[in-house]
Write a structure and sequence with these properties.
This protein is of the alpha+beta class and 97 residues long. The protein has helices at residues 23-34, 56-66, and strands at residues 7-17, 37-42, 48-55, 74-83, 92-94.
Length: 97
C-alpha cells in the first residue's frame, strides 16, 4: 500500500456479454494483483456488479480492466458510481447472491 494514497470506493456495473465468460474470476484475480478489496457478482439482468475499495490508482486500473474483461467477454458499457470509502473489506471475493 502506498503511503498517503487516496482511498476510494467504486460501485461498478458492467453490461454486455459478461456472464459465462469467467468475468467474476478474472476480476477477482485482477483485484488481488492490485490489493483492491471488495466483491463481484452476477446480476439476474445479465450484468456484473462489483464494489472496489483501495488506493485510487489501483481502483482506476481495475475499472479500466472492466472495460474489456477476460478474452471471451464483450463489454458494452461500464457504469461507475463513486461512494464514500468504508474500509469494510478484508479481501476481494465472489458473491453468489
Amino acid at each position: 500500500m502506498e503511503e498517503g494514497a487516496q482511498k476510494v470506493r467504486a460501485h461498478v456495473f458492467i453490461k454486455g456479454r459478461v456472464q459465462g465468460v469467467l468475468f467474476r474470476y478474472a476480476t477477482r484475480d485482477e483485484a488481488n494483483l492490485r490489493g483492491v478489496k471488495g466483491w463481484v457478482r452476477n446480476l439476474s439482468d445479465g450484468r456484473v456488479e462489483a464494489v472496489f475499495e483501495g488506493d485510487k490508482n489501483k481502483v482506476d486500473e481495475l475499472i479500466e480492466f472492466c472495460h474489456y474483461g477476460p478474452p471471451a467477454a464483450k463489454v458494452s458499457s461500464v457504469e461507475v458510481r463513486w461512494e464514500d470509502y468504508t474500509g469494510e473489506f478484508r479481501d476481494f471475493h465472489i458473491r453468489y447472491r
